[in-house]
Design brief:
Elements lengths: L1 H28 L6 E6 L5 E5 L5 E5 L2 H28 L3 H4 L4 H8 L3 H11 L2 H20 L5 H6 L8 H15 L5 H12 L2 H7 L50 E7 L10 E9 L7 E7 L6 E6 L6 E5 L3 E7 L5 E6 L7 E4 L2 E4 L1 E7 L7 E7 L5 E2 L8 E6 L11 H4 L5 H8 L7 E7 L4 E6 L3 E4 L7 E2 L5 E5 L7 E3 L5 E4 L7 H7 L8 H10 L10 H5 L8 H10 L2 H4 L3 H11 L10 H21 L1 H7 L12 H10 L12 H19 L9 H4 L16 H4 L16 E2 L2 E3 L2 E4 L8 E3 L17 H6 L12 E8 L1
Parallel strand pairs: 1-28, 3-6, 10-20
Antiparallel strand pairs: 2-3, 2-28, 4-5, 4-23, 5-25, 5-26, 6-7, 7-8, 8-9, 9-17, 10-16, 11-12, 13-14, 15-16, 17-18, 18-22, 19-21, 24-25, 26-27
């Protein structure tokens, strides 16, 4: 029996070893070819691909179409699975790869019918753009074919990659819309619930345009509105609030956004402007961006350096040698909730021209190992109808610039040849993309800000709330280029954006408010830029890595005032809480327990106060409707905890002091329940530990260490320049002077390659994690691959 068991074990081990060896062999076959020559069709002339020690390619071609081909080739070699997920995410086609588990997401995406819209938009693009997209798609498919086998992801899920099509690049643009915009008009709908459930003056107070934290490029910080008087609003006669803890300590407090700024040549050593950018997005393996140098040898030649988006043949941010540009999500108002008034017949709705039939589309969702699922989409002339609206009383359609042909383009092509700021901002205003704060500088020292993307013109409705367009109002066209808001060469020589409000007055009315971030981060960046009068590119990294907790400083003072001798008497846990916060390190540093405690105190107070103020809305709609807290709620919140009006407390709190102490105790209970030991050990690093993961690693825990980036605590948080959460933060950091790119720096999380056996899978990640200024330009060539053109 022992010999039999031994023999069986040996056979099993041999089978396991053979499987592992086979898997490793298959995996190795799919590694990209980095050296030598590959014969391809579809090129006018040879293309050279040089790679440096980090895997950053320099792609040299004779013309723009061949350059797009080469870009597609390297994107497919290093990132095809990522590209495939991005296009399928936008098109609602993930179930074809993963089965029924992806159906809820596919159903949500199919509301927008982006596959059909991409095909339609492609047909309307200029001939040059279609030529570039066609060449890029050919390059992607040639690069995919050049790998010795399908990548390991397809092997594991039992599927095969499908060819890339020119329209798929437009799906990549739509995927970024989904990342950066409110695709379902949830903000308008949920604000609408609050608007209907609160007195008008109370709503205006709770949803202000800005706060004292604002740091716009033009205009002043927001002015505080007085706290409503008892005659306007009172809660002390409301029933006791059944508050349910939000458990914010396990959540995030960040918005998809970014930092960018520029200083003019009068503040630099070289006389050229400096442009800095760190775009904050969800972090995964591989990184959302891909570094590249793209250059043509013909006349007029181009030389582009910076970051590309796998799936697209253009430079997203960086420098063309004359002009450098950067992006932050604008948070303008690009989506509107339209209240639909049904006609007398059930298949009609009312419009200014009279009743109109809904347009019906039937979307077939292919599901792996199951039958297709049909989804019926009703569309109005304004946009698709939400069948799952949070508003229980009204039918809502979604108007979104992504649904229009003007919303997508390949306009970045025109940026490649601009020579000054003036030309760059005019091009930026025409690009079809999720509208961005576009910050730009040129070699002559000029700087500017504008909106990159199309801006809809609105008439006769409040764009911040659901509106009835059946008789009048709505979108009336697109803003003319000459009417775009712009800031050019301000006297200060400084421009900054950080997803907060940038302008006021007429400019703000044109852009709208799509949920601006509170201005604390922008203000901290602005103030840092005024601390020096002379700048070099490398100096910008210290601003990007600034983790000082200026926003929370006043909350610490409030907390210490509440935890006085009476509060801590006979309460040793509160005493420890006070001691930790008294000796805090005023940064979002990994070894700071005080920072974490102050942060969680504020969040607990915020959530309790908002829930209390929303009691009348909850009474009307029930607590199943997710209400939307304004990103500017810090303004009224700070007024309340300082003025402490008794009429705005529900009956379960005897005083504001009691509410604040309950917030402290709730956090103590949470830490005890979750950790069970001394709160002195609850450091920010324990909470802010990186979890930058491959999309398949959660399903393959045995491979997670191999697929994911190392887990490590890092400093940074929301409401400071170094925005960082466990899986959210700077997807790249750079600073560059156009014309002097060798003095710039650029790094990003994870590596260039999406292949875990590649030497480029993790290279460069440590520069990002440790904040080292890696070179902006590619380094010495280590590999050279030539794409040989044949007819």
């Amino acid at each position: 029996m022992k010999r039999l068991l031994f023999s069986i074990s040996l056979i099993l081990l041999l089978l396991l070893a053979l499987f592992a060896a086979g898997f490793w062999f298959i995996l190795g076959r799919s590694l990209p070819t980095l050296d030598g020559e590959v014969t391809v069709t579809g090129l006018a002339a040879d293309v050279t691909i040089d790679r440096d020690d980090l895997g950053v390619p320099t792609i040299t071609a004779a013309n723009r179409a061949d350059l797009a081909y080469g870009t597609g080739f390297v994107h497919a070699q290093d990132r095809f699975f990522q590209m495939d997920l991005s296009r399928r995410n936008a098109a609602g086609e993930l179930s074809q790869l993963f089965g029924a588990v992806a159906l809820p997401l596919d159903r949500a995406r199919r509301l927008h019918r982006f596959r059909a819209r991409a095909n339609s938009a492609l047909a309307s693009l200029p001939a040059e753009a279609r030529t570039v997209l066609d060449a890029y798609a050919k390059g992607v498919n040639a690069g995919l074919k050049s790998n010795g086998g399908k990548s390991f992801e397809y092997f594991l899920i039992g599927s095969a990659p499908e060819p890339w099509r020119p329209a798929d690049t437009l799906l990549i643009v739509y995927s970024m819309y989904l990342e950066l915009n409110d695709e379902l008009a949830n903000r308008d709908i949920r604000r609408g619930l609050a608007f209907q459930g609160l007195p008008q003056t109370v709503f205006a107070w709770l949803y202000p345009e800005g706060t004292a934290w604002d740091a716009p490029l033009s205009g002043e910080p927001g002015a505080a509105t007085p706290v409503p008087a008892p005659s306007e609003y009172r809660l002390d006669d409301q029933p006791a609030l059944a508050y349910r803890p939000q458990r914010h300590a396990a959540g995030d407090d960040s918005l998809p956004g970014s930092n960018s700024w520029a200083v003019s040549g009068k503040l630099t050593e070289s006389g050229s402007a400096i442009v800095a950018n760190d775009m904050h997005l969800s972090l995964s393996v591989p990184n959302v961006f891909y570094r590249a140098r793209l250059q043509t040898s013909g006349e007029p030649g181009i030389s582009l350096n910076g970051v590309t988006l796998p799936g697209a043949p253009v430079l997203i941010a960086g420098s063309n040698g004359h002009v450098a540009w950067s992006n932050t999500n604008s948070y303008g108002d690009w989506t509107d909730a339209v209240v639909i008034r049904p006609g007398e017949r059930g298949d009609t709705y009312l419009t200014p021209e009279g009743p109109r039939e809904f347009e019906i589309f039937r979307e077939d969702i292919l599901v792996k190992d199951a039958s297709p699922v049909e989804l019926v989409v009703r569309e109005t002339l304004w946009g698709p109808v939400r069948e799952d609206s949070p508003d229980p009383e009204r039918l809502i359609a979604v108007a979104w610039i992504a649904h229009h042909r003007e919303g997508v383009s390949l306009g970045h092509l025109a940026l490649e040849t601009v020579r000054d700021v003036s030309a760059a901002i005019r091009v930026a205003n025409t690009i079809g993309l999720p509208p961005q704060n576009f910050v730009v500088g040129d070699a002559a020292g000029n700087i500017a800000w504008t909106i990159a993307g199309r801006i809809p013109l609105r008439a006769s409705f409040d764009p911040g709330l659901p509106a009835d367009w059946s008789t009048a109002g709505g979108w009336t066209g697109w803003l003319a280029i000459e009417d775009y808001p712009r800031v050019v060469n301000p006297e200060s020589g400084r421009i900054w954006t950080a997803n907060a409000r940038v302008v006021d007055g007429d400019a703000l009315r044109l852009i709208g408010d799509g949920g601006y971030d509170i201005g604390a981060r922008a203000k901290q960046i602005r103030d840092r830029l005024y601390e020096k009068e002379r700048w070099q590119p490398v100096d910008m990294l210290a601003v990007q890595l600034d983790d000082e907790a200026l926003f929370l400083a006043r909350w610490r003072e409030l907390l210490l005032a509440v935890l006085d001798e009476d509060a801590v008497a006979s309460h040793p846990a509160r005493a420890v809480f006070r001691d930790v916060c008294s000796n805090w390190k005023p940064r979002a540093a990994i070894d700071s327990a005080g920072y974490r405690l102050v942060r969680d105190f504020r969040l607990e107070v915020r959530d309790r106060v908002f829930a209390m103020l929303m009691q009348p809305v909850v009474a009307r709609y029930g607590d199943r409707q997710p209400l939307r807290m304004s990103n500017q709620f810090e303004g009224p919140l700070w007024q309340l905890v300082n003025e402490q009006p008794p009429h705005l407390l529900t009956a379960n709190y005897e005083s504001w002091r009691a509410l604040l102490l309950e917030a402290v105790d709730a956090n103590l209970d949470f830490y005890t329940e979750k950790y069970g030991d001394d709160i002195r050990d609850r450091t920010w690093g324990e909470r802010n530990t990186m979890a930058i993961r491959h999309p398949l690693s959660s399903s393959l825990p045995l491979l997670s260490r191999w697929l994911d980036m190392p887990a490590m605590p890092l400093s940074g948080d929301a409401n400071m320049p170094r925005v960082l959460g466990p899986s959210f933060g700077a997807s790249e950091r750079f600073a560059v002077s156009p014309g002097d790119e060798s003095a710039g720096y650029l790094h990003m999380p994870a590596g260039q390659s999406g292949h875990p056996m590649s030497t480029f899978y993790r290279k460069g990640h440590d520069d990002w994690a440790e904040g080292r200024p890696a070179a902006f330009l590619p380094g010495i060539t280590r590999h050279t691959l030539i794409l040989r053109a044949v007819n």
